[in-house]
């Protein structure tokens, strides 16, 4: 009898966002796959979870999948967590989920923390239809992606790092128009959570004179 794969969201900042069910599953499984075991170990310790941790990240994901599938076929119950948020959303997980489905292995994804949902709701932009773009390509394919978004009518959501935020806001202004309404959320669920709303140009000017720290979510109104 095959085991089961659980995809378990973890808090993106505030530990109080960890669900009772997530804690129970992590205590019950045979082993836990973590994006970075050094990051996950304190989280698990905080909730009294004492389980074997195995590394599963973007640099070893292709190699790791084969072994994980073997464990699952042997009947192991396995949970996958990322450093923060829901696995496979701009984090490792897609390859493992795909292989589990191909091998008829049961899987279950728990609902839970992810950064783009509160950022979208906080933005005040239309939330009935939206497209999640994740991280834009850093180099190759970046301009192509921007051009594809010029006529997008849905609200667009991007993840970005602090050191690339100003460049991305500048490029979005060039392709979508400096007067396009947008919002930038950072440090969501943490003590210094902030959401800045306005036009792309106004937001860019704001962050030119303010310290940039933490994970960032950009929401931009559709055409």
From TrEMBL:
Single GO term (MF): rRNA (cytosine-2'-O-)-methyltransferase activity
Chemical reaction(s) catalysed: cytidine(1402) in 16S rRNA + S-adenosyl-L-methionine = 2'-O-methylcytidine(1402) in 16S rRNA + S-adenosyl-L-homocysteine + H(+)
Lineage of the organism: Bacteria, Pseudomonadati, Bacteroidota, Sphingobacteriia, Sphingobacteriales
Record-given protein name: Ribosomal RNA small subunit methyltransferase I
InterPro entries given in the database record: 4pyrrol_Mease, 4pyrrol_Methylase_sf, 4pyrrole_Mease_sub1, 4pyrrole_Mease_sub2, rRNA_ssu_MeTfrase_I, SAM_MeTrfase_RsmI_CS
Annotated Tetrapyrrole methylase domain residues: 4-203
Record-stated family: Belongs to the methyltransferase superfamily. RsmI family.
Keyword S-adenosyl-L-methionine (UniProt): yes
Organism of origin: Daejeonella rubra
Pfam families the record matches: TP_methylase (PF00590)
Function: Catalyzes the 2'-O-methylation of the ribose of cytidine 1402 (C1402) in 16S rRNA.
Keyword terms, alphabetized: Cytoplasm, Methyltransferase, rRNA processing, S-adenosyl-L-methionine, Transferase
Places the protein is found: Cytoplasm
Source species, domain of life: Bacteria
GO CC annotation terms, alphabetical: cytoplasm
Chain segments annotated as coiled-coil in the UniProt record: none
């Amino acid at each position: 009898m095959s085991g089961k794969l659980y995809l378990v969201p973890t808090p993106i900042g505030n530990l109080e966002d960890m669900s009772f069910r997530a804690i129970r599953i992590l205590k019950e499984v045979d082993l836990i796959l973590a994006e970075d075991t050094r990051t996950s170990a304190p989280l698990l310790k905080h909730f009294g979870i004492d389980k074997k941790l195995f590394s599963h990240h973007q640099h070893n994901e292709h190699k790791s999948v084969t072994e994980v599938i073997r464990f699952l076929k042997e009947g192991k119950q396995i949970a996958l967590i990322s450093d923060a948020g829901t696995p496979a959303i701009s984090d490792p997980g897609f390859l493992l989920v795909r292989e589990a489905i191909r091998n008829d292995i049961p899987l279950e994804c728990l609902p839970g923390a992810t950064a783009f949902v509160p950022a979208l709701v906080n933005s005040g932009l239309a939330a009935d239809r939206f497209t999640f773009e994740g991280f834009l390509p850093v180099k190759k394919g970046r301009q192509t992606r921007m051009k594809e978004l010029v006529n997008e009518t849905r609200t667009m959501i991007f993840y970005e790092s602090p050191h690339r935020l100003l460049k991305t806001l500048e490029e979005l202004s060039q392709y979508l128009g400096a007067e396009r309404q947008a919002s930038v959320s950072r440090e969501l669920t943490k003590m210094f959570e902030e959401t800045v709303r306005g036009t792309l140009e106004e937001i860019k000017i704001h962050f030119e004179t303010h310290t940039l720290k933490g994970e960032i979510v950009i929401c931009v109104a559709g055409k």
